[in-house]
Design a protein that fits this description.
Layout lengths: L1 H35 L3 H4 L19 H8 L2 E11 L8 H8 L5 E12 L5 E4 L1 H4 L4 E5 L5 E10 L4 E6 L20 E6 L7 E12 L13 E4 L11 E4 L4 E8 L10 E5 H13 L10 E5 L2 H7 L7 E6 L4 H5 L6 E5 L2 E2 L3 H8 L7 E8 L2 E8 L16 E3 L4 E5 L2 H6 L6 E6 L3 H4 L7 E5 L2 E2 L3 H9 L5 E7 L5 E7 L1
Antiparallel strand pairs: 1-2, 1-4, 2-3, 3-6, 4-5, 5-6, 7-8, 7-10, 8-9, 9-12, 10-11, 11-12, 13-14, 14-15, 15-16, 15-17, 17-18, 19-20, 20-21, 21-22, 22-23, 22-24, 24-25
Amino acid sequence: MKTFLKSFLGTASAILLVLLVSYFFINKDEDKSSAQRPTDTQQNIPIQSTNYASTVPQNVNFVDAADKSVNAVVHIKTEINVKAQSYHDFFDPLREYLYGDRGRNQSFVAYGSGVVISSDGYIATNNHVVENADKISVTFNNREELQAQLIGRDPTTDLALIKVDASQLPFLSFGNSDELKVGEWVLAVGNPFNLTSTVTAGIVSAKARNINILGGASSIESFIQTDAAVNRGNSGGALVNTRGELIGINAAIASHTGVYEGYSFAIPANLAKKVVEDLKNYGEIQRAYLGVQLRDIDAEFADKLGLSQVNGVYVAEVVNNSGAMEAGIEDGDIIVAINGTITNTFSELVGSIGQYRPGDKVIVSVNRNGELIDYDVILRNQDNTTSIVKAEETFFNKNLSVSLQKVSKLSLDNMHLKSGLRITEIKPGVLQRGGISEGFIITEVNGKAVNSKNDLEDALSESNNNRVRLIGIYPNGMKVSYEFMM
């Protein structure tokens, strides 16, 4: 008992000592803290608690923007019929007659999104959503489904325009993507994984991103990067600001897994607006050029040139007789802005110029040996003129039972072709029996390049024993060689 009592008293004394020491230091720290912390009266600032768990500012309202968007963003389903073999030959019609079409055709279904941009049924989407489509179906938020017609595509910007026969549709108005700020809240609206009318939120992570996905020297990549969740099926959908204005068309994600990992990319609204207006009004993209060869300026290049900073894009060469040369821009100039919009990278400059057409005047600000100079430049097309080029009129060829249209120079360049007539409509006849379908491009007839109505008629008139050999290609790259008796 004595031993227990002695042990208990010793333990209690130790605990009491610890408590007294703790109390002394805690009170000392509080007194010191009170002395160092200014009072409300000293600073005239009310003390506020901050909730660091809150990630969205309380004054940001996504509800109105989402409400405007979901009814103007549509679900797109495309059906694609693909021939199983790479080449046709003279005996294909006979094989089909004897054995049918078994095993030669495959049908694929793909999905994406689109944005209604006018009440009369025009819908903007990605080129890769509708490319090679034989049938395009559009489903609205109220579950109404309509068939759509392809108006035009532009692979160089990954944009396309389709149309449904409807009126008084809810639509989104274009905002000014040049005014978009990094850190600004945005919404991505689309149909990921066939989940219709999905809205996700994020911020603008960066602007004028070039992620090298379109390919081709004439492609324009100046994407808006966001961290709004975007997945397969979102392509062609809307990127909107908190006012519900369309400021981008969602196009791609950067991912190791194929699904969202925090990086999504949208085509700026200013570029998209110009492209869809071109497709609607002209049937061709009106591409404008400054007439300069450019390169980005990095630290190494700036040091080599003796530049004090890396701002702007370096003019390596001015093209002869171009708008830039006529305005007075010289080799070695550094372009720092287009119409007041800063251009610190090649993709920013290309994105800015992509908003204009041949004949438009832009103010190009350059740094020349430390002096800032503005030049008025009249933009020109690839042929170095200010002409607006309209799509060729279609014509009907009775012998082939097809309507055809001359392929634009830009499309020929993208497909590495020198000539071509695109089939816009096919009727019962020799080509239809051979399995040729709309969209096919005839490049040669009887060994002669065809680029016009006269070319085609002359080539057909020179057929030996009425035997015709036709060579062409589909937009997906599938080549066709076909012989028949006319």
